[in-house]
Design a protein that fits this description.
With 141 residues, the chain is an alpha+beta fold. 30% of the residues lie in helices and 16% in strands.
C-alpha cells in the first residue's frame, strides 16, 4: 500500500511540474486533429490552398469557406519548483550549544558511576503459584 501511494505521489509531482502544449485543428466546428506536445496536423484542404472548397462544409457561403479551418493551441504551464537557499542555511559557523550538549551527553554515556545504588536490590518477587508453561501446555521443542 505504501509503495502504491509513493508511486502515485511521485507521478503527481512529475505531472504538476511538466508543461503541456495541446494542439487542435478544427474544420468548422468539428475537431479534425488533436496533438499533445506539438501542433495538430492540418486537414488536406487546409494545406493545399488550390483545393476546392471544404468537403465538410460544402453548403457554406463562399466568405466562410475560406476561413473554415482553425488551429488552436492550449498551453498548460507547470508549477515551478524553485529551491533557494538562504544565507542562514549555508551558515557554517559552529553551534556551541549543540557541541556542549553533545560533549556532555557523550561523556555521561560512557562514565562509570560506582556510587549509584539500585533501589530494587532488596526486592523479593512474588511466589509463583502455578508453573505457567505447564499450565497452558506450551513447550519449546
Amino acid at each position: 500500500m505504501k509503495e502504491i501511494v509513493s508511486i502515485f505521489l511521485a507521478f503527481q509531482v512529475l505531472l504538476s511540474s511538466m508543461s503541456f502544449n495541446i494542439g487542435m485543428h478544427f474544420c468548422g466546428d468539428n475537431l479534425q486533429s488533436f496533438s499533445l506536445f506539438d501542433k495538430a496536423t492540418p486537414c488536406e484542404h487546409a494545406v493545399n490552398k488550390e483545393a476546392s472548397s471544404c468537403p465538410f462544409h460544402a453548403n457554406m457561403s463562399p466568405s466562410k469557406k475560406k476561413g473554415c479551418c482553425d488551429d488552436k493551441e492550449v498551453k498548460i504551464e507547470g508549477q515551478e519548483h524553485e529551491t533557494t537557499l538562504s544565507s542562514s542555511v549555508l551558515d557554517f559557523s559552529p553551534d556551541f550549544k549543540f557541541i556542549a550538549a553533545f560533549v556532555i551527553s557523550y561523556g555521561q554515556l560512557y562514565s562509570v558511576d560506582a556510587g549509584i545504588s539500585s533501589k530494587f536490590h532488596n526486592y523479593k518477587p512474588p511466589l509463583i503459584r502455578v508453573d505457567i508453561p505447564v499450565f497452558i501446555q506450551t513447550f519449546l521443542i
